[in-house]
Amino acid sequence: MLGRSVHRRAITGCAVLLSGLLIAIMLCSLTVNAEDDATKIGPDQDALAQTVAKGIKYLTDVGQEPDGSFSKFAGTGPTSLAVTGLLRNGAPPTSPAVKKGLEYLKASAQQDGGIYGQKAFTKNYETCAAVMCFEAANQQGEYNGLLKKAEQFLRGMQTVEDSSDFRFGGAGYGGESRPDLSNTAFLIDALKSTGAGADDEAIQQALAFVSRCQNLDSEHNTTPFAGKVNDGGFYYTPILEKPDEEKETANGGLRSYGTMSYSGLKSLIYAGLEKDDPRVKAVQEWISKNYSVESNPGMGNAGLYYYYATFAKAMDVAGQDFIVDDKGVKHDWRKELAEELAKRQKPDGSWINSNEKWLEGDANLVTAYALLSLSYCRVDNK
Fold it and tell me: Bridge-partner residues for 180, per DSSP?
């Protein structure tokens, strides 16, 4: 009897020990999984791929014309953005849709080196978008000659005569149009894509104009608007041709808004400014206070998808995985942006803005913006 009792106690002890060991293993596993989840960034990559695939299918099956163009009534810009969106999401330059789009753009190259429609008013913007598209497709150097001519054309778009002129370093849509931050940021993007560094003369000249578009009272902005809002964000242009109630403040300042603030941040970084520069710190503070994936801060749903594309690229350029808002909440911007875009996608795979301002009633243009945005949401968590 004594032997049996000892044997029973031994078995019970082993069972308790084994049970404890299993619990410890399970707890360890849960801890490791929790740590893995904590280090992951970005959206579910399978869900992201499905969203992207639907968008690509819309553009290639519905949006593209037989001549390779997308919404050519608006010039070559939508084609360049759509083809770049396809390329950045894995379509090779030899795929039918990309190849046709590139041929259409190549046929739009003009004798002056620009790449734009025949009667284009937006020559700078169209050429910048085309340059970035051809750079994305230029795997074998087949577009080197075309790109070189386009680069020289773009360098001629800047106002560079008088550094005291508020127009200095800026670029507009083309011709005699006033310079603005949107077009200047596109110019910086395009030159950067062709290999221009932070010390490039054109980029440093552009920095002067970019700084004059920031609501920051400093030696870099001596315009009448610098200190009237002084929130660190960016506005469209300091060159006002007529009153704009949508963007002006009650005290005569210019309202900061999302698209321009992220354009400003990206441009400052491309021009070589470090994170401790007062201009960078100021716009980062503005971003913290105005973070949103539901609206274009300061503009509501106007230009929402252009905002998404600019926001995503700027955060990628800045190397930021998270944004901490002014309440201390940490946002995984890739995850939140991708999920917001997935919610807004139409059943046919397209996106469209209910606010048609700045051509965002056009599904091709808006879908191109969405695909460009999503291309910055891919991550490798392995």
Answer: 171
- Write the CATH number for 107: 1.50.10.20
Beta bridge partners of 109: 115
For the stretch 51-61, pLDDT in tens is 999 999 999 99
Give the whole-angstrom CA distance, residue 45 versus residue 51: 10
Name the phi and psi angles at 324, rounded to 5. -100, 120
48 and 15 within one domain? no
364 assigned to some structural domain:
yes
Total domains in the fold of the chain = 2
In a domain, 380, yes or no: no
| pLDDT for the residue numbered 240 | 86
Alpha helices in the chain (DSSP H): 2-39, 45-58, 77-88, 96-107, 123-137, 144-155, 181-193, 201-211, 226-229, 258-270, 278-290, 304-318, 333-344, 363-375
Q: Is residue 84 part of a domain?
A: yes
Range of the domain at 33: 1-39
Confidence of residue 37 (pLDDT cuts 50, 70, 90): low
Residues 53 and 23 in one domain: no
Alpha helical stretches, state H, 115-230: 123-137, 144-155, 181-193, 201-211, 226-229
Q: What is the pLDDT of residues 280-337, one digit of tens each?
A: 999 999 999 999 999 999 999 999 999 999 999 999 999 999 999 999 999 999 999 9
Determine the pLDDT at residue 120: 84
